[in-house]
Structures are given as structure tokens and as C-alpha cells.
Amino acid sequence: MLKSLVYKNFRLQAQGIRRLASVASNAGLELVDSSEASTTIKLDDKMLVTYHNVFLRDSCTMADKSIHKDSKQKLFKTSEIVPKSVPASTPRVIEDPRTGASMLEIEWDEGDGKTHKSTYSKQFLTQYSNIEARRIGKFFENDVIQWDRSKLVTAKNKGKIDFDYDSYVKDDLVLFDVLKKINTYGIVFINNIPKQEEKTNKWFIEDIATRIGYIRETFYGKLFDVKSVDNAKNIAYTSHSLPLHMDLLYYQSPPGLQLLHSIKNSVEGGESIFADSFFAAKYVAQTEPQAYFALTNVPISYHYENDEQYYYYARPLVVEDEASTDFATGQHTIKECNYSPSFQAPFEFGITKPFSPQDKDDLVSSHSISSNVNNAKEIGDSYLFKDFLRGLAMFEEFVHDPVNQYAIKIPENTCVIFDNRRILHSRNEFVLKEGEERFLKGCYLNKDTYMSKLRVLTKKFGHLFS
């Protein structure tokens, strides 16, 4: 009820906030300098920004001249407009006749006496004025909260990661809140799902997933059942305990989100365990920077070879986003982690030590130059591998500490959605007694699909949450 009132108040405020944003956009836009190579403007009477003219010409959105009016796709190649990125006259600040907002207008020299006119809003120029601003609305790493058990329990007790099914499927503002919380915590719960009839072609998990985007099909199918079966091809389809892991890391592009709808869960045991791999990686980085460096560089091989299928991919445990920096630490932010012990293949990095000749003459006579280079690389790799093993042990100790885990026996008629590139998940062993059953329905979504919907709804509702 409280959440519904909050969402209603957000809507009542929306129109007034939009008006304020429109008035603010009329504030200071001043031309300071212009040359053949660049244009300098002052934003809000305080910030000087110099833009490369090729960037400005390349960003023109004039319909049917620079972009197609319907598809919004560019009608030219960047290399074509480089010679045409020189102003034909001094740029000027004008007023948008429709909104009254300030705009920068530049008339470009196209050659042969032809010109091309482009306009740039203050909002656009502000958005591209610095590295951090360019990521706003596209990436949301600044909203991430890394958690241990205490922090996630607090968030759950305050209702921050729990949502009602009916509101989720009907209300885009609730959907937006869900997507934001997945970005923030990496995990949410959709509750009060209607009782699922098993003999049906309609599965509620499809409604939950397709609210975000299209379902990612894998060799498990579009949807998959998590229940104990005979001759299981995956340990998840047994009653045994599962170690902490992420799914399908042997794919070149693993799924971004995993959804699990608890349909029946009356067994003894079978609790789901979740842990934040980003928090564990940060712990290693702060405690042993050299070991953390190895975690970002040593590839771990993953494979699936079963049932006439052979998948393979190698990736480091920690992948950083080199375009994003955590200004509090000076380090790149973490983009994703990769940890799935059950599907690890033999290591291929730093695992051999090359022959060491007794002296320089032996080195020259016994090995080609290329062999010497490879030997030097192997020696360096072997030292890095030692650092990696130290970092891996620290990472594993951290995620397996109960204080860094959140355990829950997922209630029937609840669906958990979690980030498969961040959140580790496992399951306790369970006992199947007569008349009892544990049945979860699952599916995956690509990270691109999720990010697309988050960006669209951020444009629509983002100002309500700022």
C-alpha cells in the first residue's frame, strides 16, 4: 500500500518537475570561441567546454540530411564528413522557436558553395561535456550497492527488493523500480504470483520476463524446469547441494539475468543462497592489490561437454569496465565476475615452467628467438598464476562466509530475478519425501535486453527518482 502511494505521488509530481526542467534548459549557453577545428562554449555561465568540430558535425540529427526521419539511423559515414567539418561562418546561439530554449547553430561548409546547418540543444551539449556526463542514462554503476547479509536483509525488511506481481505486470513505474533495484542490489523478488497450473501453455514466468524483454533461449530451451530427475545432465536437476556459481560461463555471451519462479517448494532443505561477487572482488582489491590484478588477467577456462554438445570459453574471474572509474578508489568499476567451479576446464595459463638453459650459449643454441620469447612469457605467466591462486582463495573464503551470504527458501508463488554476471547462487541439499515436491520454472534474459528497458524507462521516469 505504501509503495502504491509513493508511485502515485511520483506521478502527481511529474508534470511540475518537467516544467522546472524546461525552464532550467533556457539558462546560459554562450559562444566563446570558434576555429576550423573546434568550438568553445560556456554552459550555465561557469563551465567552458571545447568540442571537436568533427564530433559536432558527426552528431547532427537533421532529418533526411543526417539521419533518416523514421529509423533515426545515420545517412553518412564519419570519414565522409571530416573534410566538411569546418564552419562556413561564425557559430551563433539562437532560440528554439518551439520551446524558447537556447541552441547552438553551426552552418558547415560542404564545398562547391553548399552549406549544411546543424543545431545543438543545451541539454545535448551538457550531456557530452565530460566523461561522467556521457554515461548518464546509459550506464548506472554509480547506483550499485555492494552487500553482505546484513545489508541485504535490511533492504528486504524495508521492502526495497520485494514487489507485488500484479503491480509489476501492470504498472511501468513499478517495473522501472524493479529494474533499478536489480542494478542496485543485483537481486529482487516478485511476490503474490497467482497459483501456477502445471498442465498449461501459460507460464507466469513468461509474463514476468517479457515485461523486461525477449527471453534468451539456450540449449535448456526457452524455459526450463528445476526439479530432481533421473539421469540428470546437470547437478541442478538433482537433490544434491549446489556450490556457489554463475550460469553458462562456457558461452561466449552468458545470460545477463536469471529468473526462477518457485511453483512448489514443500521439501525439507533446498534453501537458495546468494552472494555478491562484486563485494568479494572489492575485498580482494583492497586487501591484496597484486592478487586482485591477477584475478583481472588470468583466464579461467569453462566448458560443457555432455549430451553431444561441447561449449568452451575462457574469461578472467573479474572483468573491469575500463571506461568507468570509481572516483572514491581511483580504480575501474567492476563490470562482471565469472565464477562457476563445477564447469571449470583445466587451466591453460601459467601452468608450465619452461626449460632453463645453463648459460647464454646454451640459450642461443638450444632455442629459437620465438622460443625464448615464449619461455619468458611462460615464466611471467607462472608468477601471475601464483598471485591468481592467492586471490582466488581470498575470493572464495569471502563468498563462503555466511556473513556475506543471503539464504532464503524461496516461497511458493514468488519469483527471484538476479544478475547472473554479478550474483552468485547456490542451493542447499534437500530431502524428497512422499507427497513433497520442489519445482522451480526458470528462464534467462540477455543483459542487453535488460539494459535497453532500463534506459528507456530512465528517460521516461528517471526525473521522479532523482
UniProtKB/TrEMBL annotation:
One of its GO terms (cellular component) is mitochondrion. Residues 159-444 form the TauD/TfdA-like domain. Belongs to the gamma-BBH/TMLD family. Its cofactor is Fe(2+). One of its GO terms (biological process) is carnitine biosynthetic process. Keywords: Dioxygenase, Iron, Metal-binding, Oxidoreductase. InterPro entries: AlphaKG_dependent_hydroxylases, GBBH-like_N_sf, TauD-like_sf, TauD/TfdA-like. Gene3D superfamilies: 3.30.2020.30, Clavaminate synthase-like (3.60.130.10). It comes from Komagataella pastoris. The keyword Nucleotidyltransferase does not apply. The gene is AIM17. GO terms for molecular function: dioxygenase activity; metal ion binding. This is BA75_00661T0.
